[in-house]
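[SOLVED] Need 3D model of a four-part complex

Original post:
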Amino acid sequence: MLGDMPRPDFQKQLRDVALRVTRPRLAVLEAVHAHPHADTESIIAAARALLPEVSHQAVYDSLHTLTGAGLVRSIKPAGSVARYETRTGDNHHHVVCRSCGEIADVDCAVGHVPCLTASDSHGFVIDEAEVIYWGLCPDCTSRPQ
Amino acid sequence: MLGDMPRPDFQKQLRDVALRVTRPRLAVLEAVHAHPHADTESIIAAARALLPEVSHQAVYDSLHTLTGAGLVRSIKPAGSVARYETRTGDNHHHVVCRSCGEIADVDCAVGHVPCLTASDSHGFVIDEAEVIYWGLCPDCTSRPQ
DNA sequence: CATCTTTCTTGAATCAGTCAAGATCTCGCG
DNA sequence: CGCGAGATCTTGACTGATTCAAGAAAGATG
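Solution:
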């Protein structure tokens, strides 16, 4: 039914991390790729546009599995539900609008891993620094309330 | 009943930000101060140790109000419930253990506002940079699984 | 093609956090 | 020091995202 379609090679991505290639997972990958920073509900909707009968549970499970495998990344700004993106690997962060919740990608000013070296890490072995910038997006800036 | 006790002047803190001084708020401030990084449930328990009949709703409301006033700060690492602390004002961040969820304070290596200047903020007006370091705490490092 | 696992479907359950209405308490003023 | 207005608290029910569980279905391997 879906023999050959020239999208990003999601199948290969799955095989590369030793995950089974299933319709739900492909649909979820596709959905996340097409809607960066989308919340779970939107991803479920987008995935169903490709595969009408996916259960929400399969989407949740796929997102967890894919997140664990590093194919997608999840971000959960305070006060927001979980959101996902396929941009992984590069060290980028996010700006979140306090007013409307809009999210955008930003590369840190430093360019490289910035604050990864905390002065005193209390003995913790740090492997990732997550940065969230809070502020107002252009739209909300121009029309305050 | 509780005429004079030499604690931090929470009453003054409340008045300084034009908030009414109520028993629940004092209890919540005290609880958060005594248990940094505690989750809401712990704070409710700690507040009830001081004021047995506080409703969970009053605690939630107090936390929101105090957070809005800047007397307490809330942090919500992904996969964790909301946690609170009274350390506000200074620009410090947090390390979170991926394994046990333990949280510790850290000052950024740079010492000052570090990544506050994102290279390209997409027009967002940024007012705060929140940094969360992910890793393993000393305990979880020494005994892997 | 057959078998073994992993993954998906269905349906119910959990739990933090929120909403709403009325009672109570703080604060400012006379 | 007592009163009144308005903020704040209590009670109790509810929402909604996420998770759990058991059986059915589909992918991988030989």
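Edit: The interface with chain A takes residues 74-76, 78-79, 82, 93, 95, 97, 104-111, 114-138, 141 of chain B (CB under 8 Å).
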